[in-house]
Amino acid sequence: MSMRTRRSVRAGQYVALLCYLVFLAFPFLWLISTTFKPAPELGSLHPTWIPRHPTLDNFRQAFDEQPLLRAAANSLIAALSAGLIAVLIATPMAYVMARHRTRLATAATGWVVVSQAFPFVLLIIPLFLVLKNLHLINTLWGLIMVYVVWALPFALWMLVGYVRAVPAELEEAAAVDGAGRLRTLVSVTAPLLAPGVVATALFAFITAWNEFFFALVLLKTPEKQTLPVVLTHFLGAEGASDLGPLAAAAFLATLPSLVLFAVIQRRITGGMLAGAVKN
Fold it and tell me: What dihedral do alpha carbons 104, 105, 106, 112 form, nearest 10°?
């Protein structure tokens, strides 16, 4: 392949990547534009990307109409708790499944993958009955339990892959040097596995933060509803919606996931091999 052909292929790849990024960013950019538009511009037959008269009235109206802060606090508690609990449970399980490749571990991994194909509707009735017997209906702890159960299979599947990526020879070398099992796990395996644990916790957090169906069914009291459920309150009868406040509230709902990922993404990518160079 000639140099000119390689450059053409590379340029085509960059163009395709740019088009894909534009495709992904379009809904979010349009949401931002809608958030700062006044009511007359929202009803205009000729919409524009940049608001002609930017305003913050949509944010004020959104906070006046719905208890967004309380709903965001409920979502934050549920998402953080679910992510932390799921990781604490999945990490030791993943280590055992990755290091001891038995038929039972292989079958368990297959069942984890298959369980992700189950639709929400198939699970909601058994979950509702179990939570009712435990007196956890209309409680955040009941919702957290559901989120943990839902996130655990995929979290386990992800962590098994991360554990297998850590060379077992490093643990064997530490054992030869006289390190005990616990010391090896803490000093050798844990630093290498930390980026995967963080990535898995982020996945569980985002899944719980954006979840709507379980929260809608299990939480009845307005004071306990999560942010995705409260967003539906901006929708009126016959599909009518208060578009400006809805866009403002939806924009605020997307910020925690974006900020969290922006904060930890460098640690995820930069910490992959950090443990391998520690003494």
Answer: 110
